[in-house]
Amino acid sequence: MFPTIGFIGCGNMGSALARAVRTSDPTAELFFANRSPDKAQALAAELGGQTQTNEWIAANCSLIFLGVKPQLMGEVLSALSPILSGRTDRFVLLTMAAGLTMQTIRTMAQGQYPVARIMPNTPCAIGAGVVQLCSLDLTQVEREELNALLSGSGLVDELDEALIDAACAVSGCGPAFAYLFLDALAQGGICCGLPQDKALLYAAKMLEGAARLAAQSDLTPEQLKQAVCSPGGATIQGVHALENADFANTVMEAVKAAYKRTLELK
Ligand SMILES: NC(=O)c1ccc[n+]([C@@H]2O[C@H](COP(=O)([O-])OP(=O)(O)OC[C@H]3O[C@@H](n4cnc5c(N)ncnc54)[C@H](OP(=O)(O)O)[C@@H]3O)[C@@H](O)[C@H]2O)c1
Predict the structure, then answer these.
(1) d(Cα 21, Cα 63) in Å, to the nearest integer?
(2) Other C-beta atoms within 10 Å of 197: how many?
(3) Which burial class, exposed, middle or buried, applies to 237 when counting CB atoms under 10 A from its CB (0-12, 13-18, 19+)?
(4) What's the mean pLDDT when you consider all of the chain?
């Protein structure tokens, strides 16, 4: 069980997950530490909780979210290892770092501690994210509690750690790809005479609806696409223009490039 939950690193993702945890559990005891203290202070004021040091969180919290960049994880954990090794109670380290395995986290922390790994994305900030979860080290009760805590961030899905880098390339990095497409759609609308605010709104709501329909439908994306393309109509001309520009191949290459970089970060 996790009576005290600490966040080391309160940047984009740490704060998004802290908000999700607060949504899921309005009474959880939350503690925040960040290199520049203003982010931790702002989060503590917003969500209710206390600012603390990394050391205090390492010594006292039963669930410790590690929200620092992968490149800084070794430095942060090695500084905390004497504190972690002195604990006699059970605690779980929760890593969200792209590319770092659970065994790497244990090695960096210099102990065979229970580690859970998640791969979140930025829409977690509004409860519409995707979080892959590897929780082999956890007890059944801990797993259920962690699932419940994370559920405020969106879809939580258990995944074998061997697949988490691939998941990162799709749903972790994917929002950036989606925003490129969204912006280009809106710019196209502006070219055709739509005001900027309406072009952006229509493009965003269209993508949201299309994604929800695809997630709920038994039809494949190809079949859903065909349903929009009337013979001789407008849509098929747009699809043809995208295909001529090698759109599908370019998107696949983007996912593969992100995957390759994730592997390099290990
Ligand atoms: N962003 C994404 O879409 C995404 C998706 C999946 C996974 N992730 C993972 O999430 C983690 C955080 O990424 P992010 O995008 O949230 O980065 P970020 O916004 O830069 O947040 C990192 C935070 O860590 C703090 N920090 C740095 N050194 C610290 C230390 N020694 N002690 C305490 N806090 C420290 C930074 O403080 P300062 O304010 O002083 O810089 C910053 O607030 C990474 O491991 C990343 O791989 C991110």
Answers:
(1) 12
(2) 9
(3) exposed
(4) 96
41: Cβ below 6 Å to ligand 1?
no
Q: What's the CA gap between 204 and 206, in Å, rounded?
A: 5
Render pLDDT for 100-128 as a digit per residue (tens, 0 to 9). 999 999 999 999 999 999 999 999 999 99
pLDDT in tens, 51-78: 999 999 999 999 999 999 999 999 999 9
**Would the CB of 164 count as within 6 Å of ligand 1?**
no
Q: Which atom of ligand 1 is nearest to the CA of 14?
A: 16
pTM, entire model: 0.93
Tell me, using a 6 A CB cutoff, whether residue 121 lines ligand 1: yes
Q: Residue 154: CB within 6 Å of ligand 1?
A: no
pLDDT band at 136 (very low <50, low <70, confident <90, very high): very high
